[in-house]
């Protein structure tokens, strides 16, 4: 239902507000009945009355902070645990009780809402990731105190707060070292996608470690780092160094040498590296660093789980709580959280959907105002009368539930985000082609970027066996791969042997998951 239907609709709302019953041609239209019911509902929800109680978001963790902390350690623990201690239900209810509805026509308010929901806007506290941050911070503090090198691998699905949490841990560690009287570590953060070639990471580390060092042509940066940490004389007096390598899977080469050499730097007898690698693949350390495991030097693994519905709601409400007005219906936020959690648990996707819903409301209001102006001109109404009606509408903006982002806006935003031609195509596929796609997604979630048709067939056979569905023959399976290739969902490479052809996903993994959930 548009926020502004027509000039007559506005006058109907005005007369209803004055206590009159508006009639047109002997009866009220459904449009006007809906407007009156909405207006009445909003009148009943005055700032003095108690609003409907919201179901409190489930808390992510239940453990209490460590006792005995003092100084900066206590402050860090309080930051990590503040959300856990706060009475969430009372806080949310009080915020809804004291805040007016927003005005989407206010440019400053619209800009503030968009900024609050933007992915690049870092919150002051990373909610629902307190335990993960404490594990990483505890590991770094222990190594820093003992002046001992070590490696840690952070993994999890996209949009689960890995990079943001590591930024916070970095700041916490530097503050703690300063307060504890320890030498502050050198911090080097890098996104591996920015490297022109994988081995460039060693030259960047060396440049951070020794900015004025000039290498001769016979020694590579990696060799220089290895020599540096092989002898106590060279490494004595050097600071501990915290390296945070994001998108670590970009360092995976065919021989896996770069990734292996990077982690091996933490195993040298006089190494002063604390390495934190971040990537999506859960089993990257097992598959690509087998030698470290055989040497009992496998990195500690911290896994970030996908956000649940309650966690997404909590994070969205925390971002919106900083605003002095209400923007979303609670049911709209719940719908967004439920759909995103079911599809991927990606918090970035949830923020994108909310911003899209706001744009839909904004477009709806522009269209409604345009229709009202057109109707006023066609009916020959006086400009003064139209202006007074519009002024009345604006003055009552905070009292109309129509100006909030509603469930219907959120439903359209979710449909635009998750439903694409690819999703419709996947939904219409025969059952065995859908099982083939499930097999591919399951395989690629392990961190691989491609696979052979033979490996895909084996994964497909396993799913058919567990689902008690008779599989198709080998020739028909090859035919299904070609069909999905022609439809742009899979990419099948060239090879004389069909089983050795390389297969990659062309469609987005979240689209496939959403279509087959």
TrEMBL record:
Ranges where the record places region Disordered: 1-71
Cdc6 C-terminal domain residues: 437-516
Taxonomic lineage of the native organism: Eukaryota, Viridiplantae, Streptophyta, Embryophyta, Tracheophyta
Organism: Citrus clementina
Similarity remark: Belongs to the CDC6/cdc18 family.
Subcellular location: Nucleus
SMART domains named among the record's database cross-references: Cdc6_C
Pfam families recorded: AAA_22, Cdc6-ORC-like_ATPase_lid, WHD_Cdc6
A GO term for molecular function: ATP hydrolysis activity
CDD domains: AAA, Cdc6_C
Official protein name in the record: Cdc6 C-terminal domain-containing protein
PANTHER family: CELL DIVISION CONTROL PROTEIN 6 HOMOLOG (PTHR10763:SF26), CELL DIVISION CONTROL PROTEIN 6-RELATED (PTHR10763)
Keywords assigned by UniProt, alphabetized: Cell cycle, Cell division, DNA replication, Nucleus
UniProt record, GO biological process: cell division; DNA replication initiation; mitotic DNA replication checkpoint signaling
CC per GO annotation: nucleus
């Amino acid at each position: 239902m548009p926020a502004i239907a027509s000039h007559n609709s506005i006058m109907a709302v005005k007369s209803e507000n004055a206590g009159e019953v508006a009639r047109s041609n002997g009866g009220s239209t459904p449009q006007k009945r809906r407007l009156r019911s909405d207006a009445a509902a909003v009148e009943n929800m005055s700032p003095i009355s108690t609003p409907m109680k919201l179901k409190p978001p489930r808390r992510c963790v239940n453990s209490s902070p460590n006792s005995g902390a003092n100084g900066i350690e206590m402050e860090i623990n309080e930051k990590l645990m503040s959300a856990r201690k706060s009475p969430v239900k009372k806080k949310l209810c009080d915020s809804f009780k004291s805040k007016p509805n927003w005005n989407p026509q206010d440019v400053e308010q619209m800009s503030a809402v968009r900024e609050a929901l933007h992915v690049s806007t870092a919150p002051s506290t990373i909610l629902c990731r307190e335990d993960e941050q404490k594990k990483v911070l505890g590991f770094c503090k222990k190594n820093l105190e003992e002046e001992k090198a070590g490696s840690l691998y952070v993994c999890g699905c996209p949009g689960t707060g890995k990079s943001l949490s590591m930024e916070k841990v970095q700041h916490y560690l530097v503050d703690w070292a300063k307060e504890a009287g320890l030498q502050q570590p050198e911090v080097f953060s890098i996104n591996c996608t920015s490297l022109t070639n994988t081995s460039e990471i060693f030259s960047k580390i060396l440049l951070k470690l020794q900015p004025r060092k000039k290498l001769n042509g016979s020694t590579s940066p990696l060799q220089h780092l290895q020599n540096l940490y092989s002898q106590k004389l060279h490494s004595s007096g050097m600071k501990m160094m915290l390296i945070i390598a994001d998108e670590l899977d970009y360092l995976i080469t065919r021989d896996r040498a770069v990734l292996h050499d990077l982690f091996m730097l933490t195993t040298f007898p006089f190494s002063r590296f604390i390495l934190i690698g971040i990537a999506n693949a859960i089993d990257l350390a097992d598959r690509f660093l087998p030698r470290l495991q055989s040497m009992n030097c496998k990195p500690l693994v911290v896994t970030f789980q996908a956000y649940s519905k309650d966690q997404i709601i909590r994070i969205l409400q925390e971002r919106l709580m900083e605003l002095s007005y209400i923007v979303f219906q609670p049911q709209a936020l719940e719908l967004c959280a439920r759909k995103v959690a079911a599809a991927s648990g990606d918090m970035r996707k949830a923020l994108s959907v909310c911003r899209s819903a706001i744009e839909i409301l904004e477009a709806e209001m522009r269209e409604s105002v345009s229709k009202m102006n057109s109707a006023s001109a066609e009916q020959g109404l006086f400009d003064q009368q139209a202006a007074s009606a519009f002024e009345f509408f604006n003055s009552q903006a905070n009292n109309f539930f129509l100006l909030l982002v509603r469930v219907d806006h959120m439903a359209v935003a979710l449909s635009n985000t998750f439903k694409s031609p690819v999703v419709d195509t996947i939904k219409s596929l025969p059952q065995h082609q859908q099982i083939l796609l499930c097999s591919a997604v399951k395989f690629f979630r392990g961190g691989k970027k491609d696979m052979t048709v033979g490996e895909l067939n084996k994964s497909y056979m396993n799913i058919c066996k567990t689902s008690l569905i008779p599989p198709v023959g080998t020739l028909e399976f090859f035919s299904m791969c070609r069909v999905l290739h022609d439809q742009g969902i899979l990419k099948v490479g060239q090879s004389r042997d069909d089983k050795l052809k390389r297969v990659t996903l062309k469609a987005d993994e979240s689209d496939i998951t959403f279509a087959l959930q």
